[in-house]
User: What shape does this take?
Amino acid sequence: MDSMALFITLKLALVTTVILVVLGAPLAYFLAYNRFFGKPIIEALLYLPIALPPTVIGFYLVVAMGPRGFIGSLWKTFTGASLLFSFAGITMAAILYSLPFAVQPMKATFQKLDGRLVENAAVLGLSPLSIFFRVVLPNSRSGIIAAAILVFLHSMGAFGVILMVGGSIPGITKVASIAIYEAVEMMDYRAAGLTALCFIPISYLFLLLVNKLNEDG
Assistant: This one.
């Protein structure tokens, strides 16, 4: 079993989840309560990673994060390091890859809120920002937690995107899914099986929690 790959996987999933909850909640709130020209186009772009093959996403990220790409060259200018084949690089890839799994569930949760809560808060003079933090978020905790769990699980299972952007550098970018693939390639089924086995209880417990939250909601 590759314990270091498991550690990198959990670290990547945790960082991705925290960032997407923090950034995705305001975005989902904006999409849930605002109508504007081009909204369907923007939402389709946000949800595009669900429909695209991971290798397609990975290819364009490699181009964008490479030394001649806009993101890669900007990163190089400010940090002096390459974005490709780094933990920061696979984190960015995981964020983009899992974005729909954060925004879509949270948007649905916000839309299920009793509209009178938001209307009453507005009548009382609360700003949209105050309504978001004092009304919407406290009444949407179960949906936000469920979205966070989905992002965590989706990030844990990422393979194609991570492999293309980060390669397989032990202790840096080699995640558990890649470790399993490499172990199978080397016909080391024992190592592959032990690493794969670690995913089952984690995923099962998180899914039980999601189901519980959905029932309570």
Summary: The two ends are 38 Å apart (CA to CA).
